[in-house]
Amino acid sequence: MSQQAENLIAVLDAGSSKTRVLVAELNEGALRYRGHGIVDAAGMRKGMVAELLPAVEAIDRAATLAEQRAEAVIERCVIAVGGPHVRGVNSRGGISLGARMREITREDVKAAVDRARSVSLPNDREVMHLLPQQFVLDDQAGIHDPVGMVGSRLEVNLHISTCSGSAIQSIVTCANKAGLEVTESVFEGIAAAEATISADERELGVCLIDIGASSTELIVFFEGSVAHTSVIPIGGDHFTNDLAVGLHVTPPEAEWVKCEYGNAVVTAVPQVSEIELRGMPGFEPRMVRQRLVGEILEPRARELFHMLRDNLRQGGVLEALGAGCVMTGGGARLPGLLDVAESLLRVPARIGSPVPLSRMPEELQQPECAALIGTLLYSHRTSVIRAAEDHSLRAKLRAIFAGSL
Ligand SMILES: Nc1ncnc2c1ncn2[C@@H]1O[C@H](COP(=O)(O)OP(=O)(O)OP(=O)(O)O)[C@@H](O)[C@H]1O
Ligand SMILES: [Mg+2]
Questions:
Q1: CB 81, CB 191: distance < 8 Å
Q2: Which atom of ligand 1 is nearest to the CA of 240?
């Protein structure tokens, strides 16, 4: 049986509404689209596996579609992880470099990061990302890369992104049962930011808001580093459920109404228009004011952004959004949501469309695919950095041994 080609990278985003798989090819440092599969999710609730078998089947279907399009076999994947079980904490720690000042090595940086990460985490927490914010060398703060600088004490401010060990293990188990080995996991917020946010925005201060089906992941960058990550337990499906209850229709009809007529700003909905609803089974179709849809959606949108504002304030980053906010995820498509974001967060807001891979079909260049594409970009970029670090370490060792001969 054939094996996955070395230059193929596959990513899996097992979301609450869609299961997505993307395959790309790495050629001379450039990523090129090869194939994708997107199917309705099954067995997932709040970013976690609720029923194993349907989740495995959905992953299998998405992966098979991606393999057919890519005309290749995939056996390994990087997964995107989101949901309310993901948390972020800031920590600080450091090391003394001895009595005399000396040059900082990559190993010193690793040791300082290890010290900063040794905060006591609750049981069942698994570390997904260790993200240095800034290094402090003796009295000098604001250093991004201290390797090669000279000092006697190195400290680091670190952002630690963690998730529930059992939640991530369930996704890994599902992927394994669908024939995919999981090589790495990436927080959906980091991934969506990777695909949509520029270096200038990260420097100025920006909040990425990924509104999925069951939750909203957020990540704030300031002065080029991750300052805050969090998850709000409200997503697009809460808007749909409100419509289902408020209009007395089935969830599928509520979803249709939201996508066709939804608006998060009541006054933007025409006052005189009416829409015909089929209603619950056994009831006659009836006409309702279109404005009613906005009247139901606006309070939910305001609740989401109130919670976001409180979360950003508690994280100490509400005033740090010089470049505003960027919204991704299918939930960001709701008309009027940008206005609600701008009025409650008091910063400019835009929709984030992921940067396209070469030859990527347009259907993937949508805000709901930002986390999928960003997982691929993040995994590739960090592997390039790791390879460069390994290479420079090997070169140093070679130089040491060459000198000792
Ligand atoms: N045109 C639209 N208008 C409003 N909402 C939309 C539109 N299209 C999709 N949505 C909503 O987007 C949500 C799905 O978004 P997305 O595909 O990003 O979720 P997911 O990644 O599967 O879920 P999660 O990230 O929460 O696990 C659904 O709630 C859906 O109703
Ligand atoms: Mg998602």
A1: no
A2: 31
Tell if the pTM clears 0.90, that is, is over it.
Answer: yes
Q: Given the structure tokens 């394994």, which residue do they identify?
A: 176
Q: Which residues contact 337 (CB under 8 A, 6 or more apart)?
A: 211, 264, 301, 327, 331
Q: What is the 3-state secondary structure (H, E, C) of 94-138?
A: EEECCCCCEECCHHHHHHHHHHHHCCCCCCCEEEEEEEEEEEEEC
Nearest CA among 349, 396, 372, 405 for reference residue 12: 372
Point out which residues pair with 9 in neighbouring strands: 24
Ramachandran assignment for 265, one of left (phi > 0), alpha (psi -120 to 50 degrees), beta (any other): beta
Q: Which ligand is nearest to the CA of 20?
A: 1
Q: What is 13-53 written as a DSSP string? A: EE-SSEEEEEEEEEETTEEEEEEEEEEE--SEETTEES-HH
User: Ligand 1 center to residue 181 CA distance, Å?
Assistant: 27
Ligand 1 centroid – CA 215 distance (Å): 10
Chain Cα centroid distance, residue 88? 13
Which residue of 163, 174, 368 sits with most ligand 1 atoms within 8 Å of its CB, as the best mutation to test the pocket? 368
**Concatenated DSSP letters of 58-100:** HHHHHHHHHHHHHTS---EEEEEE-STT-EEEEEEEEEE--SS
Whether the CB of 35 sits within 6 Å of ligand 1 = no
Q: How many CB atoms lie within 10 A of CB 354?
A: 25
d(CA 219, CA 391): 31
CATH number for the region 87-162 comes to 3.30.1490.110
- Provide block-wise average pLDDT over 10 residues at a time, the chain (405 residues): 86 97 94 98 91 97 98 97 95 91 93 91 91 94 94 96 96 97 97 98 98 97 97 97 97 97 95 92 93 97 98 97 98 98 98 96 97 97 85 69 60
Q: Is the CB of 374 under 6 A from ligand 1?
A: no
Tell me the domain boundaries of the chain. Answer: 87-162
The answer to whether the CB of 25 is under 6 A from ligand 1 is no
**Number of the ligand 1 atom closest to the C-alpha atom of 368:** 18
